[in-house]
Structure formats: C-alpha cells, structure tokens
Design a protein that fits this description.
homodimer; 542 residues; alpha/beta; nine-stranded mixed beta sheet; seven-stranded mixed beta sheet; 25 strands; 28% helix; globular
C-alpha cells in the first residue's frame, strides 16, 4: 500500500471541544436543573468548567480507562461530564435511572464504576444500593452546597465543591481516536443489560453524519433541544453535534415529559429543532391543545425510539408548521441507523403516498451499511416487500458488548444483528415491521405486530394497543389484540376488530381482542411483550 | 488505553461509491464533453462503468500504488476515473493542462505515471512531449472510436474501446483508509511543482466537512455544478461530496469560462449551487448583463482561489438573488481551510458591517485548526488586527510533499506553513491580506498588496491591478501600483491614486502608478508577481 501524505489528526471529542471553544465560544447552553430553573452560559464557560472538572477527576484518582458513572438528567453539569471524562481518557458511563434498582446495581458492578455523579432526584436510588456498590469510591451530587440534600451515603459531596479550587487550565491528553469514550447499557427484555462502549472516533463520525443536511441538518443558526435523555445513547449525539457546528443547546433537565415546561422553553429560547420519543410529543401536543399556546420557532422534530403515529405528524404539521422526521436506531447503532427525509420530487406526491413514506424509518446515511436478511441467511432485495432481520455495519455500530465477548450478536459477515424485522424499498427507505422475537408466524407467513398496533391505535377510543402471538392449533400462531381504552370512551371487541378491516391484510385481523387497564412497559418505556406473553400464557384462541 | 468496542470501517472513497450506488443510484450526472454536448446518466451507470474501467486498468497492468494520470476537463469520464483509480488502490493523478509543457513533463516524470487519460483537446500537449515521457505505457483519449483524433502517439486508444468488453463486476479491494487516493501538483511561483498526495481518509473527511450546513450545505435536493476544474484539488471534493449525499452533479467540460454555456446549464439543469474562481463569475455575470438572461434556480455560489470583489457579490445578490460564499484554501489544504457563512444575528447588521464580514475568507470548519504566527514565531491573538502567516493542521492538510521530504513546509508544532498572511477576528473569520513573499514592508510596517489591489479594481476604469514592493531609500520598500485600463476608458495616474484616498491607510497609498497593456499570470490564472518584480526590477521610486 502507498500511504497518502496527509495529516492524521485523531478524531476525538477533545477536538470538537477545542474547535467549539475557539470558533463558537459565545454559543449558548441553557439548562433546567434541580437548583436553577433557567441556567444559562456559553461554550467558553462550559469548557472552562470542564477543565476544572478534569483536574478534580485527576485529583480524585481517576485514571485513563476508568469508568465514571452518571445518573442524571440533561443539563449543563452532565454536559461538562460528557466532555471532561472522555477527554481525560476515562469513560463516561451514563446510567438510565429508570431501570430497576437491581439492574442499576448490576450495571455499576459490571462496569466497575469508580465515581458516580448523581442528580439529587436519584439519590434515593443510590442510597438503597449503598452497601452493594463496592467499586464506587465517591458519590458527587449534581448541585451546589446550598442545595445539597441530606444523605446517609459516605464519601459524598456536591459537584460545585468537587470542582471548586481547581485550576481552569488542563493539559488534555492526546488520545488515540479509538480510545473508549462513553458507555451505555441496553436493557434487553431477556438477560442482563449489556454495555456498548463507544469510541471517540465513533462519536465524532456519528456527529458528522448527524449534522448533514439530509439528516438532523444542524447549523450554527439552530437552537436544539434534545428531549431524548443524555443517559440514552449519548442523547443521539446531540451534545457533540451541536458543539461541532456551534448551535445553541437547550437541556430540559427533569422536564422531559412536561408539556408546559417544554412549550415555555421552545417559545423563550427560540428552539428550532428538537428530538425525542413519541410519548414526549404526545405530552407536548396535548398541552398545546389544552392551553392554546404555540411553538412558532420550532421547525422540525426528530422522532425515534418507537414508531411515530401519523396523528402526531399531522398535528405537528398542520397545527404548528413543524416537520416530523422519523429515525431508527438503537444503543448498539450509535444510534443513527436511518433518518427519514424526503428525496427530490417526493414533496409533489399525493398525500397518501407521501404519508406512507414519512411513516417509514428513513434511509441510511453515508457511514451506515444496511442489509435485510431472511431466516435462512439470504440477503433480501430492496423491493419494499421482502422482509427479514436488519443487519448493520458502520463506524458507529458496536463490534461487541463490553466484557461480554461470548455474545453472538454479529453474523458471519460482521454485521450486527439488530433483532428488528423490516423491509427496504427501492428508494432505500426502511420500514420496521417487528422485533424478530415478536413476529407472529401464522400459516407459515409473518404478521407484523407493529402494523396491527399502529392500525388499532388510530381508533380514537384506543389509548394504547399491543399485539402478541398466541398458539393456534391450525395456524401455529394467531395475533391477539390487547387494548387499553381511552378515558371515558366505550369500545367493543367487535367494533375494534371491524375497524381494522381494510387497514391490514384480511388474514392478519385477530380473532379476538381483550381489554386491560394497563399494558406493562420496560424501563425504557417500551411495551413489554415478554410480560404480556407471560400474562396471556394460558390464553386459548381455539 | 481502553479501546472502544465499535466497528472500524475504513473511510474510503469506495465506501462513498457503494453507498451512493445503493441509496442514490438514480441520482443524475450531466456532462458536456468534446463528443457530446449533453451527456446524461445516473450514479448507477457511472459506478457500473467505473467497474468496467477498474477491470480495464487491471488488464493494463495497473497495480496498487501506481499513478494514473489525467489531463482532462470536468466530465463523466473523468468522474469515473476519480472512483475507479483510487478504489482499485492506485492513485488518480490529475494534471493541470494549463501548465507550461516543461512543467507537465516534469510532473509526469516526477510522479512516474504509468497510464495517462487525456481529453482530445490536450492531445497536442502530449504529442509535443512524446519522447520525453518514458514512464507512460499507454495513452487513453477520453472519447469514443468515432471521435478519435489522428495522432502520431504510440500505444494510444480511445476510452470507450479501452473499457469495452470488460466485465461490469469488480471486486473492489478492502483498502486501509490511509491509502493514497489522489495526487495533485501545485505550481509554486518558484521551483518545481510539488505534489500533494491525498488519502482516502482525507477525501472522506473533507467531504463530510464540505457538506455541512454552515459550509457548502449540500443535500440530495441540490444540483451542484463545480466550475472549479477536476484537475485542481479534486474540484474542491465536489465529485465525492455530491455522491455522499446523492446530489445531482453537472460537469461543464471545457465550457468553464463560457458565460453562455454556463447560463444555459444553470437554467436547463436547475443548478442550485456552483463553485469557482472569481474570473468564472465575471464571465457569467457579463453574459447575463449582455443577454438579459436569468439564473433563477441558482441559490448560492462558492468563491475561492482568489479574493472575490464586492462588486461580484452585489451583482449576484441584487440582480439574481444568489448568495456568495467566500472560501479559502489551497492544494495543500484539501482545499477547505475556511468557509464564509454568517453567524447568528449577523444578517441584522448594517450593510457596511455585513460587507466587511462577507469579504473575509470565512471561518474554519470542524476538522481544521488554524493559527496566525508572526515573523518571530509568536501565535497571534484573534483580534482582527494582528497579522501573521496562516498555519494550519487538519485531516485534509498535507503532512509532506510527494517525494520531496526535505521541504521545510511545516513548523515545529507540525502546522503547515501556508505562506498566506492574514488576521483572524474574535468571531473566527480569516482575512487574507497577502502572500508572505508579496507583503510590502515599508518603514517597518506591513502594507497589504491585496487590499491595495482590491481598492484599485473598484475603480470602473481599472480592468486589473497589481501591487508590488519596490525598493525605497528611506522606507526600505514602497508599493507600486500597476494598472491595466478597462477598454475604451481613460485614467490618469493622479486620478487612480486620488481614488485610493480614504479606501486604505494614507501611508499605504503608492507614490506612483504605471499603466501596462497586460499583467502576467501564472498557469493557474493568478497574477505572477514574480514576473512583475522582474519586469520592474530597475524601477526607481526615488
């Protein structure tokens, strides 16, 4: 090989930080925290404090490669940790505080976290685990001395005291771009949570891809509010992507599901782009309907984590002039696997055709290599019909789980097996139809539980719906529809089943629907089909 | 170091090609060639033919690391070479056909090119050098058999015959991302041309940066026409950047300076973005004035290679609604060093302030690290006042010249010494004031020859102006203004010198101006100050 003669500067989070401080130092970061309803400073301030923090981490004995945990909402102190920890050469391990305590315990032990930074709200969770977390040497509460809560924990102090009195100059180490930067565990529905260990390179390349015009399209003129938590896949890389382009960043703290707080932030901070799961948008739209308030500055929302119902897209677009982008990915894929934006000419399509495209999960961006593989291992054509598991390669896709090398998570060609079932159309748009373990196999053919659920929830009297497969003597499996009725509505089994007619293939329509008061969810807010299958284990469709 | 556990997919031009073919296969490429006034095909077609070409190269004995030369305009066959050569592991060596024959001879010998692909128009240049180019085993003329010109050259054939009868499947090698991909020589004003050897990684990272919203901002909805030649710094990476995002690409062949052809392409192909040096825009604007024709689809033009006069920016904006982005870079810097787009709030500035910003060369994008260093080696503050040489680091900046390792082109900190003199303002905007060797040192202070030239050419009777330093007994040097009058105008020395009053510092104003019929230019179209200094060697300012 003849090597090129170009500089080889490592792609590190440090280089994003240095660049943003030099060229976009005046860019704003606005946060809601437990101790301040509207904290406001600049990238210059943030990175100065990141240097204080880096010195404090060093003084606390944090070495390169050590894991430093966070149990925290989206705010400026978490932002400082996002930079100071990896740029010191350590690993920023973001823990989901919504997990069950025993999962949090498992994760901290498995990651062997040395320090933990915790929001005051999550202190009780740690207190309950106190004697079980031997690796943790210090607990730092993300507040100042005045707001420091009482706690029986030992070796605990507030963040502001922790970083105070340190120098604001720090000699950031020159890191190899493949150095681990961040760690995030994904809680599967079976087995223990598994850790994805991001690298500086993967974070930088994901950010390059995220800001591209046909993806998140973030410029220095934008004001971005990630409502996706910073404990979930690096908040879709938004804390890095915004610094890379100098956009203003708004961090809503614990107010992620609070329609009133979100509306107020959008209006006052002139937010142009936001990102979150469908539940967040339901809360915001519901507040807007009730209050009659507006979100005039908001131009686009990015929706991932679950399929976005058309009703959300339409309400955003027609009432508020906000365009909704569907996206798809997971903790293991950085997360951006696909992003839905239109191709040239599509804006001229009839509404029905356009809706079909917008409901898909979108196209791969450059840097992602996707294929659809059927049960026999055959790569499927991109014909919009053929279904199979989504397999993915790319610079922001995990190559193995952290300390879990035995896991058969990749296929023989090195593609990560996502466990999602989908089709790809000739234009490169992905449509997720199921999780592979949730697929219902009826008479040798697949029925998509997601399609059935989407059809059912479009009925105004349905608050939530889930579909699972139940054994059937003739067809091997048939779908069972499980429905939570909307408050103060009435709905019969016959009505909802008749409603599905014409919306899905006739042979997909379940024979039965059952009504329940609530559908169980996982710690990350997804429908827990595992629990549903246990609950309906004795159900007979005969 | 704890390594992250993410996939490490090489950043190669091959990966751009594979991605574009899969997701944007239908994207169009339109060209003007010598044998076809309007050739039109898709990315799918282009990459299929790139595979034919790769097989043909292999059959011709091209090995990994070999240099394959081009002497060609911007068209689809050159595009195929841009991919097939580097993705085969060889090096696509683009030669500037405007260089002097002895420079072309030197470059081909120095690069040790094995094959050369040549436009029919440049065949005479090769014929004149025939017996001097021993490394060249085959000459391939970029046309088909019907249009093949007569030539005394041996081992010559047309491109279409060269690739015909080969398979359209090719197993692209898995390349290390640091493999050399492309080679471009820069003709300094002194000494032999020097080669910059780009890598796959540098081309990919430059493309990521180029498409960013605050840089070229290229989406799949755009139609881009690079008027900057493909023999010059990879046409500013546009052939890679457009494929990365699936934009339509329009290649104007030899019609780069032809206002009528450019207007027609813009109108018929609905071009939204174009890129070129100021001379190109003068030709286009002049044609538009004379013909009364319009360029309605065009939204933005990128201007680099030389400072863009305000008159061009204003005519574009006010008459045609086209926004002009200034950019700065050189062969050694990939080329994008800085790009001028506005920061938030700047659009509300008064016209005079805004013009001052727009005339600057712009801000660094993420991936570029710039500093200004004075003669004593001190890094200068970004205060908009302090001047010094621009030094640059980045993933698309050369680390050394090809086969020229002795050259002291980098400073002790590893920054490339650009030879450009500039200031940086507090907002990160670069303003080039001179080439370091063209700076005029008068009474111990620097006078910017570029500022004086810009002021002089804003006089309607000045067609072109150059300023050089001439010896002065008291001030050591003083500026001399050299002017070419516009056709059918009259202008006296006193008039033009008086005109400068108020436009530059009083002590900058030259004591003398001389009128000439023509100003000498280098092969890349820049004013040759070396030749002017020779011509005026005996000039006395006393």
């Amino acid at each position: 090989m003849l090597p090129g003669q170009m500089m080889n500067q490592p792609l590190t989070i440090t280089s994003i930080m240095r660049f943003a401080e030099q060229v976009y130092g005046g860019g704003e970061i606005v946060s809601i925290t437990a101790d301040n309803p509207r904290h406001r400073y600049t990238y210059t301030d943030a990175f100065r404090r990141a240097r204080l923090l880096a010195n404090a981490l060093k003084a606390a004995g944090v070495q390169q490669g050590d894991r430093v945990a966070t149990l925290a909402w989206n705010d400026y102190r978490h932002f400082e940790l996002y930079y100071a920890v990896p740029c010191s050469g350590a690993v920023c391990h973001t823990i989901n505080p919504r997990l069950f305590p025993e999962q949090v315990e498992y994760i901290i032990k498995h990651a062997d976290d040395k320090l933990i930074f915790v929001d005051p709200a999550f202190l009780p969770l740690l207190e309950a685990l106190e004697h079980k977390l031997s690796s943790i040497q210090q607990v730092i509460v993300l507040t100042d001395a005045c707001h420091m809560p009482q706690t029986p924990l030992k070796n605990v102090r507030d963040y502001e005291s922790f970083i105070a009195h340190h120098s604001d100059s720090f000699n950031w180490p020159e890191l190899d771009e493949n150095t681990a930067s961040s760690l995030c565990y994904t809680s599967g529905t079976t087995g223990h949570p598994k850790g994805v260990l991001y690298s500086h390179r993967s974070c930088v390349l994901h950010s390059y891809a995220a800001v591209m015009p046909d993806a998140m399209n973030i410029s220095c003129h934008d004001v971005l509010m990630p409502i996706v938590p910073m404990f979930h896949v690096n908040a879709w890389s938004t804390p890095f992507a915004t610094a890379m382009v100098g956009a203003k960043l708004v961090l809503p703290g614990s107010k992620m599901g609070d329609g009133e707080a979100l509306q107020s932030l959008i209006e006052l901070e002139k937010i142009t782009i936001s990102a979150g799961v469908p539940t967040v948008w339901l809360a915001l739209l519901s507040y807007l309907r009730d209050s009659g308030k507006t979100i005039d500055s908001l131009q686009r929302v990015l929706v991932g984590g679950a399929a976005c119902p058309l009703s959300i897209m339409e309400e955003f677009e027609h009432k508020h002039g906000v365009y909704t982008h569907h996206a798809w990915g997971m903790t293991e894929t950085g997360p951006m696997g696909t992003f839905n934006s239109l191709k040239p000419g599509m804006d001229k399509l009839a509404k029905e055709q356009l809706d079909k495209i917008k409901l898909k999960q979108g196209r791969p961006v450059y840097g992602v290599d996707l294929r659809i593989v059927d049960e026999d291992g055959n790569t499927q054509p991109w014909d919009g019909e053929s279904k199979g598991e989504v397999r993915i390669k790319g610079n922001w896709v995990c190559s193995a789980y952290y300390r879990h090398e035995g896991e058969a998570s990749h296929d023989g060609d090195g593609y990560f097996r996502t466990g999602d079932v989908a089709s790809m159309d000739p234009l490169g748009y992905l449509l997720i139809t199921d999780r592979s373990k949730d697929v219902i196999k009826s008479g040798g053919e697949w029925i998509s539980s997601i399609d059935l659920e989407n059809a059912a929830v479009s009925h105004p009297a349905v608050a939530e719906a889930a579909v699972i497969g139940v054994p059937h003597p003739k067809w091997s499996e048939r779908p069972l529809l499980i429905v939570v009725k909307a408050p103060e509505t009435d709905l019969s089994k016959e009505e909802i089943l008749a409603f599905l007619d014409g919306k899905v293939a006739k042979w997909w329509i379940p024979e039965d629907a059952v009504f329940v008061d609530a559908i169980p969810h996982t710690a990350t807010g997804k429908i827990s089909k595992k629990d549903l299958r246990i609950k309906f284990a004795d159900y007979s469709s005969a």
